[in-house]
Specification:
The chain is mainly α and 123 residues long.
């Protein structure tokens, strides 16, 4: 039941936020071949840090999961990679923002979050 509720929440986010492309990119997957559990709902957002601050000012929690690419983390230093070796990964680490997706999130709350994100990109 928890995973089904999270999928429902994710579907609502995707339907609401897809209209904000190219500012916001929602997760893409083939529903016939995959059934994500959405332990997080991550979007790629232009001006991610500004958006996160805007949401925080409105009392909306969001997270920057995985802000440091693996090849730049201390545990991977022995591999000898440096900034610029994986530019796509590094760019994505600066764009990804996790939105609330917990199973007890109300549909009304998701609409409020999406409205706030829409308002941010209208400014």
């Amino acid at each position: 039941g928890i995973n089904a509720k999270r999928r429902k929440n994710a579907s609502l986010y995707t339907s609401r936020l897809s209209q904000l492309n190219p500012h916001v990119h929602t997760p893409q997957y083939n529903a016939e071949k995959a059934s994500p559990v959405f332990h997080v709902y991550q979007v790629r957002a232009q001006r991610r840090d500004e958006l996160q601050n805007y949401l925080a000012q409105k009392g909306i929690d969001s997270k920057r999961h995985y802000p440091i690419p693996i090849h730049l983390q201390e545990a991977a230093q022995y591999l000898g990679y440096k900034r610029g070796d994986f530019p796509i990964c590094e760019r994505l680490a600066g764009e990804i923002l996790s939105l609330p997706v917990r199973e007890n999130l109300l549909e009304k709350e998701i609409h409020e979050i999406c409205d706030a994100i829409t308002d941010f990109y209208r400014c």
